[in-house]
Structure formats: structure tokens, C-alpha cells
UniProtKB/TrEMBL annotation:
This is Lipoprotein. It comes from Candidatus Avipropionibacterium avicola. It comes from the Bacteria.
């Protein structure tokens, strides 16, 4: 009798443990169609990653990769012609003790890369000269060759919003957070290093967004 009771107790405990684990297991993050994970799409994805890394190297003077994101944005029913658009985002940070010099250098790199924006970093420099704080400068988007988008966000080491500006899921031209294929957010150690270096006046979060696949709306 006692053995049966013990077995029932163990069974109950085991069931409870399974339920707890099941409750902690994340739900599927995506309703991404199966064809968007196929070999042809993956090949396009790998090419986009390589091209975006090369863009980032040229645009930041080989600043190390800080974060990346790969995913597909569900455009239904907001887009008449495309139902899904997939893109990779590769991000680095560029710091400078002289904010104006940093903006001028980044602007020149973007122009050399064939990118254009209105308003661009020249306007950002003018806003900085007018007294706007670095952390309050508006994000700038450049349109570059091969339909590539480059986003530049601005921060300072003591900016409370630095972590938020490193969140790639909020980029207007990125894949968003709903259908993520893979991601690597900025490491806490990197964030701490950026926050602790008070010798820097300007931190630019430079993100390269390359679309690699889209599916037409039915």
C-alpha cells in the first residue's frame, strides 16, 4: 500500500515538473512559411551576410561587429505587392572624442560608398552645433547601392538609452522582432565598455540592412 502511495507521489511530482518545464519553453517565435527557410533562400541569406559585413567594414573602418539580426517581416496586409520581406542587419559602433569630426568622417565614408540621404549627417552636424545634445540627435537613414539601407543612431557613454539604440529589432527598415531566424544582441560586456569610456563624446550605432528575399502577395 505504502509502495503504491509512493509511486503516485512520484508520478504527481514528475507531472508537475514536466508542466513547469513546458511552461518555461518558449513558444514558436515565427509563422514563417517553410519555403523561406529552404536552401535557395539560405544561399541568398549567406550572400547578404557576406555583403553586409563588407559594407560594414568599409563604412566603419573595420570596427568589430557588435550585433546582428536575421529575419523576415510579415507585410500582410499592409503591402499591396509583397507578403514577406527577409533581411539581415549587421551592426558596429564607432566612437569619437570629437563629435563634429566623427560625424564628418562617417558622412565622408557613406558618400564614398555611394550612399545618399536627405537630411544626412551634414544636417546632423548643424543640429549638434545649434546646441542639441548628442543623445537627442535623430536617427539618420542612408540609401546605398544594391538597395542597401544604412541606419546611424547617436549616443553618448552616459546615455540611458544606449542599450535601446543598440536594439536592432526597432530599426524601421529591418526585419523586426516577430519572425527572427537568428540574432545576436550586443553583449553586456561590450555595452559596459561603451558606457564606461567617458573620454568619448560621440557613439554612432551604424547598422547595415540588406534585404535578401521577398515573396509576392497572392
Amino acid at each position: 500500500m505504502r509502495s503504491a502511495v509512493v509511486r503516485r507521489l512520484w508520478a504527481t511530482a514528475l507531472l508537475a515538473a514536466v508542466l513547469v518545464v513546458a511552461g518555461c519553453t518558449p513558444a514558436a517565435r515565427s509563422e514563417l512559411p517553410r519555403e523561406l527557410r529552404g536552401p535557395e533562400v539560405n544561399s541568398a541569406r549567406q550572400k547578404a551576410i557576406g555583403a553586409a559585413d563588407e559594407d560594414l567594414r568599409r563604412l566603419t573602418g573595420s570596427a568589430p561587429l557588435k550585433a546582428n539580426l536575421d529575419g523576415c517581416r510579415d507585410l500582410r496586409p499592409r503591402h499591396a505587392g509583397i507578403s514577406w520581406r527577409c533581411a539581415v542587419v549587421r551592426t558596429a559602433t564607432v566612437s569619437n572624442a570629437d563629435a563634429v569630426a566623427g560625424l564628418d568622417d562617417q558622412h565622408a565614408r557613406l558618400l564614398d560608398h555611394g550612399c545618399a540621404a536627405f537630411p544626412g549627417l551634414a544636417t546632423t552636424r548643424d543640429r549638434l552645433a545649434s546646441g542639441i545634445a548628442v543623445a537627442e540627435l535623430a536617427e539618420v537613414t542612408y540609401h546605398c547601392p544594391d538597395s542597401t539601407i544604412v541606419s546611424v543612431r547617436f549616443s553618448e557613454p552616459h546615455d540611458d538609452d544606449l542599450a535601446a539604440k543598440l536594439d536592432l529589432t526597432t530599426l524601421a527598415h529591418g526585419p523586426g522582432a516577430a519572425n527572427v531566424v537568428s540574432s545576436q544582441p550586443v553583449a553586456r560586456a561590450n555595452l559596459d565598455r561603451l558606457s564606461d569610456d567617458r573620454s568619448q563624446r560621440l557613439i554612432m550605432v551604424v547598422s547595415v540592412v540588406r534585404s535578401y528575399w521577398s515573396t509576392p502577395a497572392e
